[in-house]
Amino acid sequence: MNRAAMIVRRQLLPEPSCLICRDAPVKPALSAPIAPSISMATKTSLSSDAAAEPAFAAARLICRRHDKDSYLLSHFLPPSVRDGICALYAFRRVLVATLQQPASTKEGAPTTLDGGCCSSNSIDATATLWRTRLDEIYEHRLTLPLPQFRDESQNAIRAFQLTIDRFQIPRQYLFDLVEAHRVALSVLRYATWRSLEEHCQGVAGNVGLIATCILGLTNGDARAPAALFANAVRLTTLLRDVKTDWERGRVYLPLEDLARFKYSERDLSAGVVNDNFRQLMRHQIARARDLYRRGAQGLCSLPPDGSRLAAAAFGLIHSGVLSAIERQGYDVFGRRAALSAPRKLRRLAPAWRLARHAPGRPIPAVF
Question: Which of 312, 301, 134, 103 is nearest to 221 (CA)?
């Protein structure tokens, strides 16, 4: 290609900009052509968008790769709802990855998913850029490469934009989610249960609220229980991951509870499992189960199209981790508490009972 042709090519086919910052072009793979961009200034429906299936396929792949349980449970859902839930999961993966990179990047190392074009190492700056991109998504101004040139993250973002359009997800839920993750990355300790509860509400409760839009919640009063259900799942994962979080310099067990049960951070660093620790964990597990029970009150407000069963099974499988912690004597340091495949399958029957729970009736004793 002569010099004149190369100049024309650069003008007609500009390098795609980073999805987040756009301050510098993303370096394409050596084997990939340079991709032109397309602006989503015109609102398109799911059925008329030729790029919808590749976008949702990428979202499903991300969900299947990182959370097999959720991916399998999504098959209880109607196809459009299943795609929406997978798109939500994929979007959150992309969001968290981009926010975490500035926090974990050493000086001079790349700070973005794409391998290094964002110029700022600031979590605050990345969160601000995400809010800008969300505004563009809601106003249909977001610019992405043409479908054949999109990477997995860009397809995930496109799938989530279509999900937002289809299910009318309030913008504030997403703004609150971004802010919660921004704050969470700067907090290493939580003094009280109240402060940890706010963390759970921010990073998980908001996801629960978004999910209710996709699942088709029929009663607005059930949004609060849905958030509690998601908070319970978050608290369960924090109890399971006490060891790994400590290795990352984080302690999610409330400091007031450490003091109450006379268990120190020195004990935590040594992985001490004594009576004090067992009492501490019993207290946290009881708290999580209470959240599950209160949150389950909202399940009857989901449509009976598989959404109730999927949500109930999701909660039952995660709450089963609490039982796994108990079975191993509350020792979360020796091995990671988890459910075997047979134990997960056995939880589908109580999930079915929970999904049939009628409004105003006592919650079945399944947690």
Answer: 301
Contact between 95 and 181 (Cβ < 8 Å): yes
- Predicted pLDDT of residue 218: 84
Buried b (16+ CB within 10 A) or exposed e, 179-202: ebbbebbeeeebeebeebbbbbbb
Please return the burial class of 138, using the count of CB atoms within 10 Å of its CB with bins 0-12, 13-18 and 19+: middle
Q: Which residue is listed with tokens 């109890």?
A: 239
Distance CA 285, CA 291 (A): 10
CA distance 313 to 77: 12
Q: How far apart are CA 225 and CA 209, in angstroms?
A: 9
**Mean pLDDT, each 10-residue run in order, the chain (367 residues):** 41 45 40 36 43 91 95 96 97 95 49 38 90 96 90 95 96 97 96 98 97 93 95 98 97 98 97 98 98 96 95 97 98 96 96 92 92
Nearest to 249 by CA among 230, 232, 268, 223: 268
Calculated CA dihedral for residues 37, 56, 214, 160, nearest 10 degrees: -20
Residue 46 in contact with residue 162, Cβ under 8 Å?
Answer: yes
Nearest to 292 by CA among 357, 210, 365, 356: 365
Nearest to 308 by CA among 225, 234, 237: 225
pLDDT for the residue 51? 62
- Check: CB of residue 209 under 8 Å from CB of residue 173: yes
Distance CA 188, CA 195 (A): 12
Contact 146, 37 (CB under 8 A): yes
